[in-house]
Design goal:
Blueprint: E1 6-15, E2 25-30, E3 38-48, H1 50-56, E4 59-68, E5 73-80, E6 92-95, E7 108-112, E8 116-118, H2 125-129, H3 132-145, E9 159-163, H4 168-179, E10 183-187, H5 191-199, E11 204-206, H6 212-218, E12 224-229, H7 233-243, E13 244-252, E14 271-274, H8 279-283, H9 290-303, E15 311-315, H10 320-331, E16 338-342
Parallel strand pairs: 9-10, 9-12, 10-11, 12-13, 13-14, 15-16
Antiparallel strand pairs: 1-2, 1-4, 3-5, 3-7, 3-16, 5-6, 6-8
Helix pairs in contact: 3-4, 3-9
Domain Enoyl reductase (ER): 19-341
Organism: Paenibacillus aceris
Pfam families: ADH_N (PF08240), ADH_zinc_N_2 (PF13602)
Length: 347
């Protein structure tokens, strides 16, 4: 095996509207060789997330070599770097990767083994590919940023509002919060998304287009202990400030165009935090291996039947046309759960 071998991939040279056929194109690029703690993964399935559409969004910039997106991968260990100790050839794995490295929309992909988990045995590759990025995000937000315990007894009577509960991260967060024993209020605005959130275990549904507090009062809640925001942080900011309990905690994953007025949280002594699941990989934090551990825990929860995959749409094969279709579906803002692509044509 030499570094001069090539592989199929889907990438971009220019940042364009998704309707433009040049926005994502089929390319042949050099097949990478693992070094250090990297694994070389034979990619079997990928999933699409809002981060893909944000990175691809139109901007005045061009790439000299194709930029490869994609941060949800399930596949098989093809080769290991000399410093790898966690996986062996042939292991089935799933992971989200790093935003600072090429993504996984390629036949083979390099990833640091410390952010890789063993694929749930009960899932196929497509079902597994729907999980990593959203599971890491939801897990870190709930159990690290918001400081929730996983002890049901300790969480008895505690409430969490999940804004945008029908999306990829919300679909996992609802399940994890219920497993931790919280009362879960999810926001959704359409019958199909409301039904999806209820099926995942939410106790109540409110509409994120209307004021939160009145809707919470109507279901007997004067406030909520925790808020996890997955949609339009700026738009919902005052609603969150109104709904959170004094000394409560708010976490969001959505950046804003304008600065947030933190003063609205002052009188209630509210804790605010960001969750960005790429932080550990991006900065090579000392606790980077926590993502390996949590993905293995998520796999165990899936295999025990207590956590379900959130794939709702499958596209085959993996090529530019299908990836453009998936990006368009996400940009329309009406997806429920996750969109997954599987199988390169010769894979």
């Amino acid at each position: 095996m030499t570094s001069q071998e090539t592989m199929k991939a889907v990438g971009l040279y220019r940042y364009l509207d998704i309707e433009n056929p040049e926005s994502l194109i089929d390319v042949e690029i050099e097949k990478p060789v693992p070094a250090g703690k990297d694994l070389l993964i034979k990619v079997k399935a990928i999933s699409v997330n809002p981060v893909d559409t944000k990175v691809r969004a139109p901007k005045e910039k061009t790439e000299a070599v194709p930029r490869i997106l994609g941060w949800d991968i399930a596949g098989i260990v093809e080769q290991t770097g000399p410093e790898c100790t966690l996986f062996q050839l042939g292991d089935e794995v799933y992971y989200a990767g790093s935003i600072t490295r090429p993504g996984g929309n390629s036949e083979f992909h390099l990833v640091d083994e410390r952010i890789v988990g063993a694929k749930p045995k009960s899932l196929n590759f497509a079902e597994a590919a729907a999980l990593p990025l959203t599971a890491i995000t939801a897990w870190e937000a709930l159990f690290e940023r918001l400081g929730l315990t996983r002890n049901k007894e300790e969480n008895a009577g505690k409430t969490i509002l999940i804004i945008g509960a029908a999306g990829g991260v919300g679909s996992i967060a609802v399940q994890l919060a219920k497993l931790a024993g919280l009362t879960v209020i999810g926001t959704a605005s359409r019958p199909e998304s409301s039904q999806w959130v209820k099926e995942l275990g939410a106790d109540h549904i409110i509409n994120h287009y209307d004021a939160f507090l009145g809707q919470l009062n109507a279901i007997g809640l004067p406030s909520v202990d925790y808020i996890f925001c997955l949609n339009s942080t700026g738009l919902h900011w005052q609603n969150m400030a109104d709904a959170i309990v004094p000394q409560g905690k708010i976490c969001t994953i959505v950046e804003t165009d304008q600065p947030l007025n933190m003063n609205v949280l002052k009188n209630k002594s509210v804790t605010f935090s960001w969750e960005f699941m790429f932080t550990r990989a991006m900065f090579q934090t000392p606790d980077i291996i926590e993502q390996h551990k949590l993905l293995n825990e998520v796999a165990q929860l899936v295999d025990s039947g207590t956590l379900r995959t959130t794939v709702t749409e499958r596209l085959t094969p993996i090529h530019a046309s299908n990836l453009r279709k998936a990006h368009a579906m996400l940009e329309a803002g009406r997806t429920v759960g996750k969109v997954v692509l599987e199988h390169f044509e010769d894979n």
